[in-house]
Amino acid sequence: MFNLLSASVQVNIFSGFGSIQLDWIGNIIKSLIEGVGSIGVGIIVFTLILKLITLPFDIMSRVSNKKNSLKMKRMRPQLEKLQRQYANDKELYNQKMRALYKKEGYSMFSTCLPTIITMVIFILVIGQFSAYSRYANLSLINSLSNSYTDAVVKYAEDNSEYFTINYTTDDNGNKKVSTLFVNDKLLGSEYCDDLSGIVRTDKVNVKANSLAALKTLVAAYNEKGYVDYQADKIFVETDGNVTFNFDTTSDGFDKDGKKSELRQKIALLLGVAESDIPLEVLTDQAVDNYLNTVVSESLVCFAYDKQVENFSGDLDDIDPQVYAEKCADIKNGGMDMTVQSVYKTSDIDTLARLTESKNQAGFTGYIASQKFTLVEETQKYVVRFDGENSWSKSDLAREVKAQALKIYAIDASRLDQVNVSDQTIETRINEKMTEAILSYEMNNFVDSVIKPIGRNAAKDAFYTDTYKSREFLWVKNLWVPDLPWRNPVYTSLDKYDFYNQLDEGNKAKTAEFAEITAGLEEEKTQANGYLILVVLSIGIMLLSQLIANRAQKDQLELQSVDGGAAQSSKMMMWMMPIMFGFFAFIYTASFSIYMIVSSATSVLSTLIINFFVERSFNKQMEQEEMENDKRFKPTENQGPNKNKKRK
User: Fold this and answer.
1) Taking residues 77-97, what's their average pLDDT?
2) Residue 11: left if φ>0, alpha if ψ -120 to 50, beta else—which one?
3) Strand-pair category, 8-10 with 175-182
4) Rounded to whole angstroms, how far apart are CA atoms 153 and 13?
5) 271 and 393 in contact (C-beta within 8 Å)?
6) Per-residue pLDDT reduced to its tens digit, 425-465
7) If 178 and its partner were Cys, which of 34, 168, 246, 296 is the partner (CB 3.0–4.6 Å)?
8) CB–CB of 109/419 below 8 Å?
């Protein structure tokens, strides 16, 4: 997660995991649910509003269904007679049954059409309800990410002396942190007071992308008053190719002289005598690279001096890398610039003691007892070059040679003949060990100071009033199923319902998710619920099926000659609760609440509708019986006694 860059440690700042777009239905659902202040109450309100919208269709369907049931009850004697007559002829029974249906005004279409309309509305809305569930979960995780980043950035800005902060500006002009580093000013702080024996030297290593770019830069700097090198003398152009001028004049470069200068630098790097490095080892390309670096460094120093002229403050505060970024003409000219930092202690003894103290604090990258040997007589440490866990002198020598090859592009086969000095190897050990300790110290600072700030901020965001509203009764997080083996915060990103909608880049942010939720370890182990919503879902649907079957008993028994419809209905009576229970298992607790409230409302409306429809139908039946009773013939002179019972 944290990368060592020179002498700084990068602190990751998080930008979230993308977004999920809601359509207009989804936004209405969002406004309804979030507007109430409690997600649970909001879902209940949303469900009741949806039921209110579909209520006219429900009433039409249930009224029609109840009327059909009552008509079927009236036709029962005739249908039972038909069942006995055509017990062995289903087709003829169905024909007679349909004829009787037509005569009595019995029609299933009037029941099915409103139900179909209600189902279409349900499918449209519930699809967006699921989308909103994914949106809510992703929004929660993104809010934790943003809270983590905001807290870390604020701390960095409040303690800017220890941090290097790079900003970008978006299209709207908003300033945003792009990268954040703990810089080596931290090493001089009280946090790292035990590292006071370490010193640092900086080497600015610059190189233009091409000689042509370098020539253009030198010419541009000449116009600004730069006179250390004359572009027309140092560079020559032949057949369109720009090359260095290696003449022997005072204004040109002496190639052999530069080879000697380069050999001196390589000898210093390797810790050997110059005579140990033949001039033939240095290729023309190596000299070109060296001259490129020499001229580029001169340009950088010139630009640096110009910056210093306008700078008020401590010159040590001018970071060469930051300063170079301000020199747009250097960047536009195609010049690259890196800052190489070399750290070393005053001696190996100091390094060994420092390493031992860091081992006691938990630093195990290098084991002091295996890398250093204490000489009892002098109480000094020396580097060990024997044994499995000690340094390999030959390997370290190859490392130093490889560094020389990389910097100076010299002939590797000839360089192999050079023996790297013991002092150079000791210096290399010093650099490696010191940089490892510095990296450990900086990462400790990040782990012990910066990470807790971000993690606590993310935890606080999780428990703000806005996000606490997702708790409801015994359920910790309504966007997670009501199950004891599910947790309010998942242990990994891929467990969330929005995961499959992320692009590959965001799917790969598993380490980011682990970090921003590191302060929520308790929430990753808590039970999110206790199966109560699952049981309620099964129970309310079973009750609904029992009421429906009871209301349609006559229809189910008489719709087929062998009573097969009744058997199918009994199967459905058990299948539907099982299906609802399955949904409660795999979907969120919020969806379970929706199903329970919707089913309970349907049961209540069915009972009320059936009650009034049955009363109305019974009155209608009594009226029809009275009208069809031939014995009752009212006369005009019955007067006020017309409603009395006949004797």
Assistant:
1) 72
2) beta
3) antiparallel
4) 8
5) no
6) 888 888 888 888 888 989 999 999 999 999 999 999 888 86
7) 168
8) no
Tell me the three state secondary structure of residue 180. Answer: strand
Q: Which two tokens stand for residue 524?
A: 């990753």
Q: Taking a C-beta distance cutoff of 8 angstroms, is the pair 334, 209 a contact?
A: yes
Q: Establish how many alpha carbons lie within 13 A of residue 218's alpha carbon, considering only the half-sphere containing its beta carbon.
A: 27
209, 132: one domain: no
Average pLDDT, the chain: 78
The answer to the question of residue 510 being in a domain is no
Which residues constitute the domain of residue 271?
Answer: 183-443
Q: Which residue has the tokens 């002229």?
A: 309
Looking at mean pLDDT, say which of 156-160, 536-540, 584-588 comes out highest.
156-160
**Residues 266, 407 within the same domain:** yes
pLDDT in tens, 598-621: 888 888 877 787 777 667 766 766
488 token code pair? 């309010």
pTM across the whole model? 0.69
Backbone φ and ψ for 23, nearest 5 degrees, come out as -85, -170
Residues 480, 483: Cα–Cα separation, whole Å? 8
Instruction: Look at phi and psi of residue 179 and say left if phi exceeds 0, alpha if psi is from -120 to 50, else beta.
Output: beta
Tell me the mean pLDDT in the region 215-235: 76
In a domain, 646, yes or no: no
Residue 595: which of 608, 581, 606 has the closest Cα? 581
204 and 279, same domain (yes or no)? yes
**Which DSSP category does 276 fall into?**
G
379 plus 437 within the same structural domain: yes
Contact indicator for 545, 573 with CB cutoff of 8 Å: yes
DSSP string, 24-82: HHHHHHHHHHHHTS-HHHHHHHHHHHHHHHHHHHHHHHHHHHHHHHHHHHHHHHHHHHH
What one-character DSSP code corresponds to residue 459? Answer: H
**φ/ψ of residue 344, rounded to 5:** -155, 150
Instruction: Count the neighbouring beta carbons within 10 Å of the beta carbon of residue 211.
Output: 18
Rounding to the nearest 10 degrees, give the CA dihedral for residues 208, 214, 216, 221.
100
Per-residue pLDDT tens over the stretch 245-261: 777 666 777 888 888 88
How far apart CA 388 and CA 324 sit, in angstroms, is 45
Same-domain status, 151 and 192: no
Is pLDDT at 571 greater than 70 in this prediction?
no
* Least confident range of 84-98, 106-120, 262-276: 106-120
For residue 561, the model assigns a pLDDT of: 46
